[in-house]
């Protein structure tokens, strides 16, 4: 966690609030008890004020107290991407396995003289080989 730095914050760097939200300090007023004023990012863009210690109130804690400088959640983003990649890989493997089982089932149960079924199986085998090579069709869920 990067410690609250007023100089960076006044230059536009975001700060992290106790509730986990991102905020920006836009004004410094030395003549006021609450010397910093700014807004909470996202949502309604709430305007807030803080004292020199980054506290919204003197007598009690607030969810809008400044706790540190904002640090991008690159690790969380990387974990989400990794989860999506694992899910995508599992989905592709499952689709290939289902297609392979379908071909085997139809091959065992088709009539030996059914040329149309044989042609369809041959086309399915070719598509299965393309799918194994990574050329899965795009699926929309």
State the gist of this model.
The chain has 141 residues and is of the alpha+beta class. It has three helices and five strands.
Q: Largest sheet, described in full?
A: 5 strands, antiparallel
Q: Give unreliable regions as ranges.
A: none
Q: Tell me the strand order in the biggest sheet.
A: 4-3-2-1-5
Helix amount: 40-55%
> Per the principal axes of the C-alpha atoms, what is the gross shape?
rod-shaped
Along the chain, the helix and strand elements come as HEEEEEHH
Using the CA coordinates, give the radius of gyration: 29 Å
**Helix/strand class:** alpha+beta
Q: What is the percentage of strand-forming residues?
A: 15-25%
| H/I helix tally | 3
The counted number of beta strands is: 5
Tell me the span between the first and last alpha carbons: 39 Å
Overall pLDDT metric: 83
Please provide a written account of the structure.
This protein has a 5-stranded antiparallel beta sheet with strand order 4-3-2-1-5, with no helix packed on it. The chain has 3 helices and 5 strands. It has 141 residues and is of the alpha+beta class. It has helices spanning 6-10, 74-109, 115-132; strands at 15-17, 22-28, 36-40, 47-50, 66-69. 42% of the residues lie in helices and 16% in strands. The model has no long low-confidence stretch (mean pLDDT 83).
Task: Give descriptors for this structure.
141 residues, alpha+beta, 3 helices, 5 strands
